């Protein structure tokens, strides 16, 4: 996914929500003011999610893994600039 821009999705909701996703690259996104979590990854089958070059200064959290996704599912850090 490249260059996502939009409005904050609301409290407790990730701007990008990936479930049971493998081999994904998330880049060039800009978290709008009020974003709780930029990238939420869930599901035990998720792996190799790579965020890069995202503007996340307005997000409370860059990445969250939940719902069975291992913490090392997201590779390369938060991808924030």
Mean pLDDT: 91
Structural class: mainly beta
Q: What level of helicity do the residues show?
A: under 10%
Please give the order of strands in the largest beta sheet.
1-3-5
Secondary structure blueprint with pairings:
Blueprint: E1 14-19, E2 22-27, E3 35-42, E4 47-52, E5 59-66
Parallel strand pairs: 1-3, 2-4, 3-5
Description:
The two termini are about 15 Å apart. The protein has a 3-stranded parallel β-sheet with strand order 1-3-5, with no helix packed on it. The protein has a two-stranded parallel sheet with strand order 2-4. The chain has about 80 residues and is mainly β. It contains no helices and 5 strands. The radius of gyration is 11 Å and the shape is globular. Helices cover about 0% and strands about 40% of the residues. The mean pLDDT is about 90.
What are the key terms here?
single chain, 81 residues, mainly beta, three-stranded parallel beta sheet, two-stranded parallel ribbon, globular
Give the structure's gist in a few sentences:
The chain is mainly β and 81 residues long. The protein has strands spanning 14-19, 22-27, 35-42, 47-52, 59-66. It is globular.
């Amino acid at each position: 996914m490249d260059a996502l821009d939009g409005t904050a999705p609301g409290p407790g909701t990730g701007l990008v929500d990936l479930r049971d996703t493998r081999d994904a690259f998330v880049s060039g996104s800009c978290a709008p003011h009020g974003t709780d979590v930029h990238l939420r990854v869930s599901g035990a089958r998720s792996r190799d999610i790579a965020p890069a070059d995202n503007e996340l200064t307005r997000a409370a959290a860059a990445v969250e893994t939940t719902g069975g996704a291992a913490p090392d599912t997201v590779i390369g850090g938060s991808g924030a600039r």
